[in-house]
Structures are given as C-alpha cells and as structure tokens.
Amino acid sequence: MITTKKVTVIASVVATAVVSSLFTATAAFGFDGPIQSGVEAARAIDVPTTLLGDGGVVTTVVNGLLFVVGFLSVIMLIWGGLRYIISGGNSGAVTAAKNTILYAIVGLVIAIFAYAIVNFVIGSLTGGATGGTNV
Q1: In sequence order, what DSSP letters do the residues of 21-69 get, joined into one string?
Q2: Residues 26 and 38 reside in one and the same domain
Q3: What is the Cα–Cα distance from 55 to 135, expressed in whole angstroms?
Q4: Model-level pTM?
Q5: CB 37 within 8 A of CB 121
Q6: The domain containing residue 16 runs over which residues?
Q7: Which of 11, 41, 115, 125 has the fewest beta carbons under 10 Å from its own?
Q8: Are 103 and 69 in contact (CB under 8 A)?
C-alpha cells in the first residue's frame, strides 16, 4: 500500500533527478549559459527577448502571483481576526479562528520561500545574471 510518506519520498527523488539532470546536461553539452544557447536557437522572429531577469515574463508572472498570495493572506488574517473577535468564548470557534490565522501566516511564509527558490533557480539558469537576460 502506498502511503503519503512513500509518495513524498518518490516525488522528492524524481524532482532531485530532474534538477540534477538539467545542470549535468548543460555542463556536458557546454552551453554558453545553461540552456540559454538552445533557447536562442529556437527563438522565432518577433518573440520577446527577455524571458528571465528584470522585466522578463517569468519574473512578472512570479511577482504577480506573489502579490495575489500576499493579498489573500492579508484577507485571511483579517477574516481570522474577525472570527476570533466574534467567537464569543466558544472554544470551537476560537480554535477555528486561530487555525485560520495560523494557516494564513504559514501560506505567506511558504510563498516567500517559493519566491526565493524561483529566484535562485532563475539565477542559476541564467548564469547569475541580474539584468534582463536575452533568452
């Protein structure tokens, strides 16, 4: 029987294998910047040149999603606070309100860590460039 623990272990092994194969493949084939030369070879005419880096599509999408998650987290914090205030001492309602506040904070922390991980991976793929990368 497959348990949640087994699925988590299998997923982490697969993710590690995929990420390590990306870095190994770029080093083995000697790309100018990891993956960059292959992407430049496949780019068509009139395609935006900045996919990664400042002003890039990926950066814009990630920043937009982080804004949405932050906005929802603040809304949930307010909702949890209101539920806490109107609980009237009912222990079940107080627990539910505290859980809402806790999960909103945990979601915000996870979003911040995800943002940091995405920036690290993008920086690794673009060779550590900070400006708009022509990919």
Answers
A1: HHHHHHHHHT-SSTTHHHHHHH--TT--SEEESTT-HHHHHHHHHHHHH
A2: no
A3: 12
A4: 0.52
A5: no
A6: 1-30
A7: 41
A8: no
**Which amino acid makes up residue 116?**
A
Tens-place pLDDT, residues 13-29 = 666 666 565 555 444 45
**Residue 69 burial (C-beta neighbours within 10 Å; 0-12, 13-18, 19+):** middle
Structure tokens, 107 = 């979601």
Tokens of 14: 């697969």
Q: Give the span between the Cα atoms of 65 and 59, in whole angstroms.
A: 10
Are 59 and 126 in contact, with CB atoms under 8 Å apart? Answer: no
Residues 61-105: tens digit of each pLDDT: 877 888 888 889 889 999 999 999 998 888 999 999 999 999 989
Distance in angstroms (rounded) separating the CA atoms of residues 85 and 94: 9
Number of domains in the chain: 2
Task: Tell me which amino acid residue 42 is.
Answer: A
